[in-house]
Amino acid sequence: MKSLFLGTAALALTAGVAMADTVRLGTEGAYPPYNFLNDAGEVDGFERELGDELCKRAELDCEWVTNDWDSIIPNLLSGNYDTIIAGMSITEERKEVVSFTQGYTRPSPSAYAALSDVDVNSAVVSAQASTIQSSHVASTGATLVEFPTPDETIAAVTAGEVDAVMADKDFLTPIVEETELQFIAEDVFLGDGIGMAFRQSDDELRAKFDAAIDTMKADGSLNALLDKWEIEGKF
Asked: Does 100 share its domain with 201?
């Protein structure tokens, strides 16, 4: 689960457009299976299906907006969209800046992958910038190399520029299955699950999505989506 901490709340300002006629859902569109762009250039993946269903249950008209990961919180606070649904980990640091729904996944593992076995505590390890994985790597004895996108972290290890990559295991699993990369070391559990993020002034809108998540947990449809997209962290 990815995590970004914005060091200042100054951008919160007066950007609130909650409860507008159309609710804009912000996502990265580059982190399968959570979210990605399909061949038609449309947002797809677990969070596309989840977001559409939540909007239906909350009786909201919604549209999708894509945004680079490194500016996804600042542009929420600036009013470019109304919520973030982008594989974002719930963390105490981020709660100082945005408000979260309850998690729509439980904490799921992060993992290391490499071409051969290495000591991840002394290796050179790639991770996407401003994620919970990059923070973890930085806290170990490893040398962290950050990249703007998850694809670049994979390219670095396959090209031999780094020794290993750390990311969500859900993201790495199909890559390991299709390439020469292999999982190494033990899985690491980080964060408090994934949730939707909102401006702190948008409590009413957040509550609508929270209630919709409750109904999906209660009727089993959330677990069915997690199964469909092979994402760990069921309820």
From this structure: yes
Structural domain that includes position 165: 109-189
Is residue 141 within 8 Å of 121, Cβ to Cβ?
yes
Q: Strand, coil or helix: what is 218?
A: helix
Amino acid present at 42: E
Q: Each residue of 145-184: pLDDT tens digit?
A: 999 999 999 999 999 999 999 999 999 999 999 999 999 9
pTM value is: 0.85
pLDDT of res. 2: 56
Burial 91-118 (b: 16+ CB within 10 A, else e): beebeebbbbbebbbebbbbbbbbeeeb
158 within a domain of the structure (yes/no): yes
| Residue 4 lies inside a defined structural domain of this protein | no
What is d(CA 15, CA 131) in angstroms, rounded to the nearest whole number? Answer: 25
Q: Where is 113: in which H helix or E strand?
A: strand 109-114
Cα–Cα distance for residue pair 174/105, rounded to 1 Å:
19
Count of domains forming the chain: 2
Looking at the fold, whether 102 and 14 belong to one and the same domain comes out as yes
Q: Beginning with the edge strand found earlier in the chain, give each strand of the sheet holding 182-189 in spatial order.
A: 143-147, 124-128, 164-168, 109-114, 182-189
Please check whether residue 182 is in contact with residue 114, taking contact to mean a CB–CB distance below 8 angstroms: yes
Q: Please report, for residues 99, 105, 212, the alpha-carbon distance to residue 58 in angstroms, rounded to integers and kept in the order given.
A: 18, 19, 6
Read off the pLDDT of residues 215-228 as tens digits, 9 standing for 90 and up: 999 999 999 999 99
